[in-house]
Amino acid sequence: MTALAPEQPLARAPRVSTAERWRDLRIVSPGDAVYRVALMLLALVLPLLLLAIVGGLVVGAWPAIRQFQLGFLFRSTWDPVAGQFGALPLIFGTLYSSLVAIVIAVPLALGAAIFLTEFAPRWMRTPVGTLIELLAGVPSVIYGLWGLFVLVPLLRDVIWPVVKPVLRWLPFFSGPFYGPSVLAGGTILAVMVLPYVAAVSREVLRAVPPAQREAALALGATRWEAVWTVVLPYGRAGIFGAVVLGLGRALGETMAVTMLIGNRHEISLSLVQPGYTIAAAIANEFAEAVSSLHLSALVYCGLVLFVITVCVNAAARWLIWRVARGSAAGSAAL
Amino acid sequence: MTRRFLPIALAAVAAVSAAPTLPAQANIRVTGAGATFPYPIYSKWVLEYTSLHPNIQINYASIGSGGGIRQFSDRTVDFGASDGPMTDSMIAAVHGNVVHIPTVLGSVVPTYNLPGVTRPLRFTGDLLAGIFLGQITNWNDSRIAAMNPGVTLPDQDIVVVHRSDGSGTTYIWTDYLSKVSTEWSRRVGKATSVNWPVGLGGQGNPGVAATVSRTPGAIGYVELIYAIQTHTAYGLVRNRAGNFVQASLASTTAAAAAAMASIGADTDFRISITDADGADAYPIASFTWLLLPKQMTNPATARPLLEFVWWATHDGQRYAQALDYAPLPAPVVALIEARLRTLTLNGAPVLPANYGGRRR
Question: Is the ipTM of this complex over 0.85?
């Protein structure tokens, strides 16, 4: 913009404000007006689409909203036969499985990103980075199958017998472990969000100016101290953004989760018990929802998921904005 | 020229108005949507029928029974298909303008994973209800042992696996459990998806089968077709006559034939044949239905659609066995013939009273 409307006009030209210059330019050609309107319409299409989605969800969910009101969010019965619907176990399961995924994925992804930007030999960086990013291209249903046939037996038959005696006293590991569970669903989600978190974190760390590292090293920091005290804090806004990106993806993931989470409308802190997520419930029950109330309750669930995702993203933006005031790097990567 | 053209035009008009007895030569497009369970045989029928009658095009979308009923009620399709019959309130919502036409039969079997148990286990309705209600929780329960003398049952927790997606299979299964257990019918009921008292949800027949086969001590239910095609072990179920029956195409058709004995000519075909009488009847079986409007409104598709349904319930039945569906018993077909003749277009029957199938 500065190139088109310089603050300092040519030497002898009369001094005109930017706004006036723009007005003059606009009047010159009617083609500009057409162009402006066309661009404006194109720019408005996406927000309008968003509004249309919200509108469609509210209309579809209206019978359920009228019948259950906000109590829908706090009740845990899901009985299509009796026409009683409550989404609390679904909301809980959605947030819980995503949290599990983030807890598993972030250390791995961040570790990979730090290693690849700071420590790995140069020849290794691109191939390994590309391989991690390739994980993002694997279709969801493949993850589901892999989870069903490899991950679940591994967790149940190899890992669980070892950790069970140690961790059984924790509420997170109580009860029998049959395989399909929040743990299995959360782990597969972690694998699925890992490439996103790793790729964005890597870009963020790359954007940290080399001078920062050099300064830390010059002050006598070890390489690890340089990363921990300088590089990571410098990019924390961007890394936080990467985590939120992963979280957003985890919240809405459907196919792999429904194949592994056990699909049970139940609230349990235990990771080895089955759970359910909103996206999985919609995918499972939509096609065969016979009564209109059942259908409407599923759309209501969709609306809730939409609101959750928007809230998570809005909260993340706000946090990033607060954090970013202190550090500059990484904001560009978002 | 006008005078010479007029008689021809009149003749053409006459020919067109007589057309209800003659299918038009132009491409006729019939659309339907609904159940996924009979999709393999429906698509086979469409393929065979359209190669016999190339001027007809039939599109069937297997979007699920719920979707089939919805689209049929909204009249966005010419026919619907469902694994569970429409309820009275749904029929009231379309002002009674629907007939259910059974097409083939399917059955559902209990499948389990008990390493070391080689003989097929025997179940009763009480046992299955008790297990799926979470009241029988261990395989060495005396109630299971009583039905399976000579089988060494392990001390192993029972893991119940059910369908997580809404499904006609679940409808048949819960319909059976509702009949044999008052507690089930009171606490859970029957539907394409229910509020399961216990268990894990698997996605589709493959999801249930995979979870059962990889979880020692698991019990689930899958369609017979699926169990046959994947060589899954499944148990015998005791029928009303007190015999333990293995599910097969023959015992499924037997269930329908036995149930028909108590059905009058005025039936609306919304009959449940689970827990049927008959010595050979397998008790967890069901029809799957096509949904047709009683008063048809589209003159272009009414006759071709009914001719197709007629063919499917007659000649088409011979494709059923090869695809592991149980064919309709003969008395049902006779009732269907009578019912198809009652369907009307603008007040007049679509099929002539002496209709006996379309010649090639």
Answer: no
